[in-house]
Amino acid sequence: xxxxxxxxxLQSPFxxxxxxxxxxxxxxxxxxxxSSASSNGNLxxxxxxxxxxxVVVIGxxxxxxxxxxxxxxxxxxxxxxxxxxxxxxxxxxxxxxxxKFDSGxxxxxxxxxxxxxxxxxxxxxxxxxxxxxxxxxxxxxxxLPEGDFLSRIGPTDFFKDLEKYxxxxxxxxxxxxxxxxxxxxxxxMALPPLSIRGDLGVLSTAAARYAPSLLKSFIKMGPKGALGxxxxxxxxxxxxxxxxxxxxxxxxxIDLLAFLLAGVKSDGILSAEMIxxxxxxxxxxxxxxxxxxxxxxxxxxxxxxxxKFGGRLSLKSHVENIVIENGKAVGVKLRNGxxxxxxxxxxxxASMWDTLKLLPPGALPDxxxxxxxxxxxxxxxxxxxxxxxxxxxADDLEIHHIVxxxxxxxxxxxxxxxxxxVPSVLSPNxxxxxKHVLHAYCPGTEPFGLWEGLDxxxxxxxxxxxxxxxxxxxAVERALGPGFKREKCEVSLVGTPLTHQRFLRRxxxxxxPAIEAGKGTFPAHSTPIxxxxxxxxxTFPGIGVPAVAASGAIVANSLVPVSKxxxxxxxxxx
Length: 574
Known about the structure:
Elements: H1 4-7, E1 52-58, H2 62-73, E2 78-81, E3 93-96, E4 99-102, H3 120-128, E5 134-137, E6 139-144, E7 147-152, H4 157-165, H5 168-181, H6 185-188, H7 202-229, H8 236-242, H9 248-262, H10 271-281, E8 288-291, H11 296-308, E9 312-314, E10 319-325, E11 328-334, E12 339-348, H12 352-357, H13 366-373, E13 380-389, E14 400-404, E15 417-421, E16 435-446, H14 459-480, E17 489-495, H15 497-503, E18 532-534, H16 545-558, H17 562-571
Parallel strand pairs: 1-2, 1-12, 2-9, 6-14, 12-18
Antiparallel strand pairs: 3-4, 5-8, 6-7, 10-11, 11-12, 13-16, 13-17, 14-15, 15-16
Helix pairs in contact: 2-3, 2-11, 2-16, 4-5
């Protein structure tokens, strides 16, 4: 899985005004025939007539690439259209002065796992025959009101931290929590996301296929455990409350984990999601993983898979409108006026609000439009990207750091939680020799209202950037110690909610829908418009890298016959 410690990082090099080299040339763009779409978005050069495909995917985020690559694997003619000159959407990487920055996910687990319980992204890469070399580690630094300590994943090490910083009662409650929820993990992980599809074929590819293993899980849990499994689709706070967990540190820590995972606290996250995370992070021998070549390697692996099976990716191809004919989605119109026809379907990897903007007025029922417009949104981000000299920085620096300033304000309060990633600790190739690359951010807590209407060229905007980034600078100084000096930074970039809105095409710069478990569900992938589907963080199963990978896979599965879907599951051992 990739926790939202990373998934929350909806950051982009397009957030900053500087010239960038394109990370690949037109070799990114490959056709299933002898032609290939051009990297500058002039698709007509690649076709004898009107450009077309079986499926047109709007956006090359993780969800869009997973969808497009799997469709290519299913022998569908697919083209992925990306507005920018880098693929990957919010998860791409970028390079400045030899520093290779992550713009999105940075904390992963299960990328190299295989089988029914693997990370959905790992299942997609397995289906594509792509590997992703990673470095393994098992700890990160936390800076809490109670103190600073190195937190380790695994079944025993965390107890030592609890004993020291929270006391015996916290240890007892943590043991009680693990004892109650870990037996439920087999049920939570029994159904591989890659087996799901959006039609009745799911009865064959998921229900019938995995019923025996699910039944076995329930039998193993016993009557009490099976009853507890009914809470998997309820808020995790209900499990916490039922166990009568009272220790403030435990309650705060659980809220922090939930917020990092899904952008909501424990009263808003599905129990299944939290239990999956606990099973991954608190089992014997567990580790975290980081791609050796940075998170951009994840995007490149998906693009390789797309190309390997004849799929195409067209960069600098901004979709202006989704074209509707006779009530059906039949293609898209690009900003340059080109029309790209979709013979079977159009798939939008944009947010629900931004997809709405691509459709002509009246194309959707008023009730559907109202539902989208009234869906609550997560807030936006502040970001700090730094490249600096490693002299004076501790040799044993951790890759990840979490700073919580005040528990009483809540982990979802603005300017309260700062996350820091220094990937060059594990992958020195991401920075010039003797240097470090760093990304700090306030995760989905920056109010868009503070920035709305500001002119990005104004002194007011620049002053607000300076003020609102100060909390990140202080967190970095706390994490790196006295050897770090701001003036040592060779690269220093600040991103704001307005840059999210502008360059990531995100409505109000949002992280995604703030849909709380028990109060609502993430939308399905189909829409009221025939042949128009959606994937990404505005659809089931929700926000975060594993979730958007699963959503892309579900849409791809839904567009092919059950027989092909089943053959793919057989081929990868699911």
